[in-house]
Amino acid sequence: MNKLRIRLKSYDHRILDQSVKSIVETAKRFGANLSGPIPLPTERSLYTVLRSPHVDKKSREQFELRVHKRLIELKDVTPDIIDALNKLEIPAGVYIEVKAM
């Protein structure tokens, strides 16, 4: 295993940046060569619903859902780095996808 690609997704950019910071600090502590964090485009979903249950079609409300994403690439990965990354405490609102290349 020579290279890891880590994609992180979250609705809240603050906890996403905290998670990215802890991953980068852990990788640097073990001497990994890394590139990133690279901010990927934010997915934005807009939902429009009627405010009234019966009439008033013109009265609507809009809700927005944003998914923030970051990418980190680790090169020259050792088993020690993988063990350290597995032991990290990541907040509940962050989805992590790891791909070995």
TrEMBL record:
Q: Record keywords: Mitochondrion included?
A: no
Classification via InterPro entries: Ribosomal_uS10 (IPR001848), Ribosomal_uS10_CS (IPR018268), Ribosomal_uS10_dom (IPR027486), Ribosomal_uS10_dom_sf (IPR036838)
Domain (Small ribosomal subunit protein uS10) spans 5-99
The UniProt keywords, alphabetically, are:
Ribonucleoprotein, Ribosomal protein
Q: Which GO terms describe its molecular function?
A: RNA binding; structural constituent of ribosome
Instruction: Output the SUPFAM superfamilies linked to this UniProt entry.
Output: Ribosomal protein S10 (SSF54999)
Q: Which Gene3D superfamilies match?
A: Ribosomal protein S10 domain
Q: GO BP, one example? A: translation
CC per GO annotation: ribonucleoprotein complex; ribosome
One Pfam family, please name it.
Ribosomal_S10
Family per similarity comment: Belongs to the universal ribosomal protein uS10 family.
Q: What is this protein called?
A: Small ribosomal subunit protein uS10 domain-containing protein
Native organism: marine sediment metagenome
